[in-house]
Design a protein that fits this description.
The complex is a heterodimer.
Chain A: H1 2-5, H2 10-16, H3 20-25, E1 28-31, H4 41-45, E2 51-52, E3 62-63, H5 73-77, E4 83-87, E5 94-100, E6 112-116, E7 122-132, E8 142-148, E9 157-159
Antiparallel strand pairs in A: 1-4, 2-3, 4-5, 5-8, 6-7, 6-9, 7-8
Chain B: E1 2-9, H1 13-24, E2 29-32, H2 61-73, E3 79-82, E4 85-90, E5 96-100, E6 104-115, E7 119-121, E8 134-136, H3 137-146, E9 154-158, H4 162-173, E10 177-183, H5 192-199, E11 205-207, E12 209-215, E13 222-227, E14 240-243, E15 246-249, E16 253-255, H6 258-262, E17 267-270, E18 275-278, E19 291-293, H7 303-320, H8 328-343, H9 349-358
Parallel strand pairs in B: 1-2, 1-6, 2-3, 6-19, 8-15, 9-10, 9-15, 10-11
Antiparallel strand pairs in B: 4-5, 5-6, 7-16, 12-13, 13-14, 17-18
Helix pairs in contact in B: 1-2, 1-7, 3-4, 4-5, 7-8
Bound molecules: flavin-adenine dinucleotide.
Amino acid sequence: MLEKTGVPTKEQVMNEFPDISRINEGPVVVIECFKEIPCNPCTIACKFDAIHIGEDINKRPEVTEDNCIGCSVCLSKCPGLAIMLVDGSKSEEYVHMTIPYEFYPLPEEGDIVEGLDREGEFLEKVKVLKVTNPKSYDRTPLVKLEVSRKYMYDFRNIRLEEM
Amino acid sequence: MINTDIAIVGGGPAGLCAAISAAESGAKVTLIERNDELGGQLVKQTHMFFGSEKQYASTRGIDISDILLEKLEGHKENVTIMKNTTVLGRYEDGVITGMIDENKYLKFNPEALIVATGATEKFLGFPNNDLPGIYGAGAVQTLMNVYGVKPGDKVLMVGAGNIGLIVSYQLMQAGVKVEAIIDAAPNIGGYLVHASKIRRMGVPIYTGHTVKEAIGSDHLEKAVIWQLDDKWQPIEGSEKEYDVDVMCVSVGLSPLNELLVMAGCEMEYVPELSGNVPLRNEDYETTVENIFVAGDSCGVEEASSAMVEGYLAGLTAAAKIGKIHPQYEEKKADYIKQLDDLRSGPVGKHIRSGIDKIVRR
Ligand SMILES: Cc1cc2nc3c(=O)[nH]c(=O)nc-3n(C[C@H](O)[C@H](O)[C@H](O)COP(=O)(O)OP(=O)(O)OC[C@H]3O[C@@H](n4cnc5c(N)ncnc54)[C@H](O)[C@@H]3O)c2cc1C
């Protein structure tokens, strides 16, 4: 399916998520890099030894969840924009999800935007908690959102409402 | 007549790196580029590149070009840059001719020649494929990212390779609606991370589909696509129509290397390398002595490999004419290792088998 449509199956996605207990402890990366390609900036970006590819740069990245502190540096470094951050430590009802977002206009803190799934379908309205765009991110801003827990495995994108 | 140790044709990543490494070896280099800007394909690549750190992975293509130009600047005493100069041919005595500013002819007499002319886009045959509004992906990207001009409002992208996927994403960043991406192949050819990135913007990707026809009086108004069966035959009744003013055709590249053919280099058609390519040795020297090649012109690949091939060809071409870099062996081994690493995975498999057909040891 992924090879034909660009949409991974729910199972493929779930496999990349850490246990819910780890998610509830604090922020952790989820990497959706399903195909072996010659690429390794994520490992170079990670200063905590949480992402491993090894000698052969064609291998898929492996995450050591316990080493990940959720610094989010790798999110803006991945050329495939395949990394996001999930944090379930903040509330029972919501998870905080941080995604790279390279479109103008950027949303602003406090905005309500449309939360989308991996096919670009509307899931629910989500609140923008933070937008970070320092020079070191090199024009790949990160947007942190408040997403209902039930959509944790579906949410992957946002759309700003028409102005 | 312009005398030079090494003439390099093409100022893309391969040509730039060849110039840097030949100049570093002590050769006098003349770098000849037909455009008014160096950088080749890089000048329109606004996305972050894949690869490893050594080839500036995660840096945007437009910035890689600047990094290489800065490196080249460091060797300026050995480098002459000729822009707006198109190399037109090569004589039997090794003299090459170029045209500068579209009106003046020049002759160059190099001891060695490195051809790094890149690749040219393939096109598709279908009724009305000459309607205005039907572009190659290169033209769309140049309009948008070099000149800041929107190519249109609604696009059908034909081709789900990396270029089709990346250009679709950039069109959306420019505020253009991409109605769909289609590809005749049964699977997406480009990296899946790129496909997912566009799919989650709501753009459908239809594999196993091709263009039936374009419709319009004096410009494109509609595009009709249809599905292919498993023998690649169109299925009657599967047509879908899109109201689009742009169709972007991105169905692959083939190596641009007529200069090598003209020079008498032995060529072979190698599908894995996307077309006619020169036979060469491990030093990237062709079957005509002192003519070297690097980058997409000897096999369509990536900027990452084009850069490393450029460094290698610059190093070996310089050595061939007696300008041997003090760390020649070390550098050569490093470049060969980098190329092997880039090509070692499943994506590089067809490149490896293509290269096996053309390398004479
Ligand atoms: C949309 C798109 C996305 C890409 N994304 C990536 C990516 O993420 N990562 C990656 O590694 N690669 C990527 N690539 C591929 C990469 O851009 C090319 O592989 C690379 O540019 C090839 O380098 P080159 O120097 O061989 O050729 P080019 O960059 O094509 O340069 C050739 C140069 O030669 C000049 N020239 C040609 N003929 C003549 C002549 N007769 N006289 C004088 N000058 C001449 C041309 O004007 C040009 O400047 C992408 C390509 C495209 C189109």
